[in-house]
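Bit of a strange request maybe. I'm writing a small parser for structure token strings and I need a real example to test against, not something I typed by hand. Could someone generate the tokens for this chain?
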Amino acid sequence: MPILKLPFNQFSKSKSPSNWRAQINQNQLISQISSIILQRHNWVTLLPNFNLASKLTPSLFHQILLKTQKNPKISLSFFNWVKTNLGFQPDLAAHSQIIRISINSGLFQPAKDILDSLIETQRVPVLVDSVTRACRRGKDSESPVLGFVLECYSNKGLLTQALEVFRRTTIHGHVPSVRACNALLDSLLREHEIKLALCVCGALFRRGVLPDYVRIAQILCKNGKVESVVRLLDLGIVCNALIYKLVIDCYSERGNFSGAFHYLDEMCNRKFDPGFGTYNSILDGACKYENEEVIQMVLGSMVEKGLLSKLPLLEYDSIVQKTCNLGETHAAQMFFKRARDEKIELDDSTYGCMLRALAKEGRVKEAIGVYYVILENGVTVVKDSCYHAFINVLSEEDPSEEVSKLVGEIIGKGFSPCGSKLSKFVASLCKNHRWKEADDLVNVVIEKGLLPDSFCCCALMEHYCRSRQIDSAIALHEKIKKVKGSLDVATYNVLLNGIFTENRIEDAVSVFDCMRSHNLLSSTSFTIMISGLCSRKELRKAMKFHDEMLKMGLKPDIATYKRLISGFK
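Reply from user aminoacidic:
Good idea to test on real output. This should exercise your parser:
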């Protein structure tokens, strides 16, 4: 008779009595703690009796959060209490759980504070998947929580991450809230990512979500499709003062003043009462296209409506600054010029506003003109942002002699462009073999105690070494050291080779020491030093470098090493 064999796995998976008792005890502990937290106002004084510091595990903590979620404020208080008083660090799943509980109960600010800390430490896929699991575990809809996550990323301007949240949300089969989608679109508009914004709109339309009409109109107008927005107005699908303003802006920018005035009249007929910004938009376009008839017509309307005084002599400062803040630099320039022609004394801040506005609009020639006026009149520009905007736009220009001089001058005043722009500017000077200007510019940066981009210095250093201007190369290296900067390994090796061609052993050792301090040594660096010292019969010094090279594991390939040690013979 065959022996009946029972599967071993069946018994091995069953729990022992001790495991069952542990599970029962844990369940009792969860129930006791949850009951105390929910039913006792003085739970903070009662919990220490349970010695939670030694018993609390991620699993137990999750269970308590789920048991207490019926009172979200209490659940949140417990979450914060264990962190502060027990030193317990909840895992990502617990953070996701409390975010879900908080959002679904309208506790948005605490949820945002917790989410902000996760955004700094977690990758988007990991965070989104964790939040999704938390919602499923809590038997809630994922959409509101994922929408909140999307909104947070968007409001922070983290576009790449926000788009990834949007993508993963739709992959999970959910549609973010209109508010979250609007936040994403706003973020894309701020960064002028119009094509991406159109793609997001398309994805939303396919899922039955209609974003705010104003945002749709903004995207269409910025994409040059004002006619599509006009159709929405003419068909009566939308009737919004902001959308009328967008259409007027677009027509004015194009020089289509008949269209601009038509929709201005439409606004008035619909009792929307267009303000300073709307009229000034048409004025800005008229100034851009030098249409004197339209300029006078708009100015007359603005005076008639009380938006400008008949004698704006005392208002020039406020008008110019207000117009600059609207980004309408052509109109601002007209008022600025009129004030100067009429010998009206303007505030120093007005000059700064003009400089910054023109720079931000990329009107470099006009910005330079205002800068010269500032110098001529001895104006003190108070706000640093004015000069920062000016030098940033200058750094994006082709480095003419005038622009190069101005960049050096502004840096000399203590204002430096962002590193990538300065690097690109210096690289352009080097590419055109304007080494003297590049050298002067880097020197100005260093003299101001600023740390130049390493790329700028490397290009110059390599030029000095190739042209055997070793004194200039060493001088530049000393200046870089003073501001605690460094070169890259390849450039350091070029410098070492250049120094050895001039038989300057002490300088070579000094440069090598600097490389060592910045952890920038390579097999090639040691090869240059050892070869250079051997060829000059400094065999003892060469052997020290040889031993250091082997100790650091930077031995070169066999062929190179054979040539290297042959120098010791």
